[in-house]
Amino acid sequence: MKQRSLWLRAGWFAVATLLIALLGAWLLFGRDRSPIQTDLLAMLPATERNPLAEVAAQRLAHADGDRVIVLVANADDDRAKAAARELGHVLAHDDVFASVTAELPPFDLQQLITPYLAHRFSLLTDADRTALANASYDPAQALAQRVNEPFATGVGTRLQDDPFGWLQHWLDQQPWSRSPLVPEDNLLTAHRDNVSYVLVTATLDGSAYDDAIQRRALHALGDAERTIEHDQPGTRVLRTGALFYAAAARAGAEHDVHLVGLVSTFGIALLLLGVFRSPGPLLLAFLSTAIGVMAATTVSVLIFGQIYLLTLVFGAALLGEAVDYSIQYLSARANAGDAWEPRQGLRQVRPALLLALGTSLLGYALLGLVPFSALRQMACFAMTGMTVACLSVFGLLPALLQGPAKPLSQASVRGALAVQNLVARMASGKRGIALAVVALLLAIPGWWQLRHDDDVHLLISPPAVLSQQERQIRDITGLGNGTQFYLVQGANQEQVLQREEALELRLQQLVDANRLQGWLGLAGMVPSLQRQRADQRLLAPLFTQPDRMRQWLSSAGFRVADIEPFIDAWPGTPLDLQTWLKSPLATPFRYLWMGDAVHDGAASLVLPQGDAPSALLQHAASGLPGVTLVDKPASISALFGRYRHYASIWLLAAIVLIVPVFGWRYGLHNVPRVLAPPVLGIGLALAMLGYLHQPLTLFHWMALMLVLGVGANYAVFLREGEPHVVHRPGAMYASVLLSAITALLSFGLLALSSMPALRDFGLTLLLGIGFTALLVPTSVIHRATSS
Predict the structure, then answer these.
(1) DSSP state of 696
(2) Sign, Cα dihedral of 550, 553, 554, 559
(3) SS3 sequence, 522-542?
(4) CA 257 to CA 232: how far, in whole Å?
(5) Please, which pLDDT band fits residue 757 given cuts at 50, 70 and 90?
(6) Boundaries of each Membrane transport protein MMPL domain copy (predicted)?
(7) Are residue 199 and residue 302 in the same domain, yes or no?
(8) Taking residues 346-371, what's their average pLDDT?
(9) DSSP structure class, residue 38
(10) Are residues 444 and 330 in the same domain?
(11) d(Cα 615, Cα 112) in Å, to the nearest integer?
(12) Residue predicted with more confidence, 370 or 485
């Protein structure tokens, strides 16, 4: 009857596991799009107090999300252009790209001028505005200067349409006029250091974060690049875009998962085989852990709708902790010998497993309090995986482990007993006090050297080659920096443009002082009506007496057929923003207008160009109503700093919360002894991080939270298990060391991760768990037994 009950429980658990497995398989592989999120920006938390600023940051980050930018470079101008044409031709024939632009359709540069002719008297530069306001302004001299100017090779107005050059001066300040890229042979080309650079752009037919799209696009680009480098010797290719960052992140995560998952699996398998001397325990331990990881993946995707790369790598490392529950049950079976009875064994380990699970869940629950979706998902993943792995021990193993097992290997027990006795002797009496003082003195210099660094780039560190190419492309093409921008808000369109102009006045001062490269904003392309009317008022005195204007123009050599149309064009019409936004010329700049995201009022974006410090840009906006500097990396770094500061308080709170639980189980007078190993392990880990000159981040503190939970588990396992193995001293500590080594194999390998955040996480756990495992015998120092 008892055996039937065990099999019935196992059957129910197996059915539930199968259902979870089927649901997980459908979520991961049965839908059109993979739930694996390779967009590293998606992991970042919302940091802006202004919701519109957060929307703007996301819009700007993904403005070119599905676009690939390529620069084809060659010292030979003809080869560079031939290679760019060939690249465009090859890519255009691959359906992974929705569109490819290499050669521009033939067009007359006058097409950039014609839309502005009707508004020419409302568009003045600051220099012309200042000159016209000066009483000494001489129209005849301005005409003579304009007539004798060298012929314009770029976007130039016709002399009869713009005899004073006012519109020409204004056009010279527009983004398309300032860009180093100029149309040559129907290709956008830049020249620098005797090298020609030709721009090719492509838009993906799908998301850059879709795995299938990534692989096809990278394959097509790789083949095309090899072809043009062969056909046009000396050609090299620079490229940037979300595609390459997402693919690099995925490749790094896959490498980490394989490294952590395969190496730790192989290492844990060898350990379990060596200690238990049978493949059965090995398979059951991995079965329990696999069920936990599978359930964790399924629940995470259900709750969050996606799973981050950070979570996948972390999940591979969870193997080392989730296997602890199986190890303790298997150890109880091995230590019981012929007296083994499944129900009795379960009753023996249940208090320790539940107490250990509770302390682990507490640590992960505190991790989930951080308003950072990646950390919350990691916490959810861990809590689900640990809980299900523990329940699988209760539900499956008693039914599957009916008979007795071989005892733990003699070598592992003897080794563990030797270490346990050594620690007991060293930590007892006056010797223990002396060693504690020495350890404190050695730790203090390490603590003293501790520093912190909250830079968000420690979380996301793309390959150096990608960052270098992006900087090169930005430098050559004059593209702006998208991580910092101003959000300009107002009651209506006119107020927004006026506030932009006030901001741009200050930005121009920084440009004049060589502290800023420039900026990109709508008000520079479509001035406010207030400014346009002011410009007309400055020009009005010149047109109030048409005969005088005719005389100036006639004296400068203009024909009557040209003079009359120019005078008749006065005063023209103001340039309207909404009309301009609908024009083809506005296409590259429409994302700067936030009209579709604002329900009450209006807003726009202004992008500073260059690498000006955040403090300087913040000062430029100081005191300007409706103007906010949004610096996403700085905001996230500040948020990480705040939560790093809070994390130390959370760690202390976790210790305080564990005290009554342990006090209820072991008595308050024994709590210091049980908590000493993880607390000392945390202190020594911090000292080592100081000696290693590791700047502390939020992730170091989150790892220390887990050191507390895992270390407390080891103390619980040893204290709960020792009374049951008095016949075989050292056997319980051997199982604790086995659990610690499996955790070190998994979490410790994270120290080799390509993700800086996981490296910090893994190194801290490696140190903390290592020290804790060695100090655990002090929690039962009075029970150590000599061999």
Answers:
(1) B
(2) negative
(3) HHHCCCCHHHHHHHHHHHHHH
(4) 40
(5) confident
(6) 100-401
(7) no
(8) 81
(9) -
(10) yes
(11) 37
(12) 485
Strand order in the sheet with 602-609: 518-520, 602-609, 484-490, 627-631
For residue 374, the domain's CATH number is 1.20.1640.10
Contact criterion met (CB below 8 Å) for 704 and 685: yes
Q: How far apart are CA 259 and CA 38, in angstroms?
A: 19
CA distance 183 to 155: 10
Q: What pLDDT is stored for residue 151 in this prediction?
A: 56
Cα–Cα dist 36/43, whole Å: 12
Q: Are residues 436 and 321 in the same domain?
A: yes
Give the Å distances, CA to CA, from 542 to 132, 255, 565: 10, 72, 16
Same domain as 772, residue 717:
yes
Can you read off the two tokens belonging to residue 728? Answer: 């075989």
Measured distance CA(273)–CA(295) in Å, rounded? 26
Sort strands 484-490 and 602-609 into parallel, antiparallel or unpaired.
antiparallel
- Rounded to an integer, the average pLDDT of 101-121 is 78
How many Å apart are CA 161 and CA 570, to the nearest integer? 12
Tokens 């037994």 identify what position?
Answer: 785
Q: How many domains does the chain have?
A: 2
pLDDT given for residue 645 in this prediction:
82
Tell me whether residue 776 is exposed, middle or buried, using C-beta atoms within 10 angstroms of its C-beta: 0 to 12, 13 to 18, 19 or more: buried
Same domain, 235 and 252: no
Phi/psi of residue 594, nearest 5 degrees: -100, 25
Given this model, what pLDDT does residue 635 score? 79
pLDDT at 785: 42
Cα 80–Cα 83–Cα 84 angle in degrees, nearest 5 = 85
pLDDT of residue 786: 40
What CATH number corresponds to the domain at position 225? 3.30.70.600
> What average pLDDT does the segment 338-358 reach?
85
Residue 519: inside a domain, yes or no? Answer: no
User: From CA 768, how far away is CA 687, in angstroms rounded?
Assistant: 10
Contact 168, 162 (CB under 8 A): yes
Residues 356 and 717 sit within 8 Å (Cβ to Cβ): yes
The answer on 233 and 323 residing in a single domain is no
- What CA–CA distance (Å, rounded) separates 546 from 474? 48
| Closest alpha carbon to 329 in 287, 384, 270 | 287
Q: What beta strand segments (E) does 585-634 contain?
A: 602-609, 627-631
Instruction: Calculate what percentage of the chain has a pLDDT beyond 70.
Output: 88
Interval 16-41 mean pLDDT: 66
Rg of the chain, C-alpha, whole Å: 35
24 with 297: CB under 8 angstroms? Answer: yes
Domain with 219, as residue range(s), is: 66-106+186-240
- Angstrom distance (rounded) from CA 604 to CA 176: 20
Residue 730 lies in a domain: yes
Q: What's the pLDDT at 679?
A: 92
CA angle 650, 653, 659 (to 5 degrees): 145
DSSP state of 239: E
What does residue 682 show for φ and ψ, rounded to 5 degrees? -65, -45
Q: Which of 38, 95, 40 is nearest to 211 (CA)?
A: 38
Same domain flag for 225 and 282: no
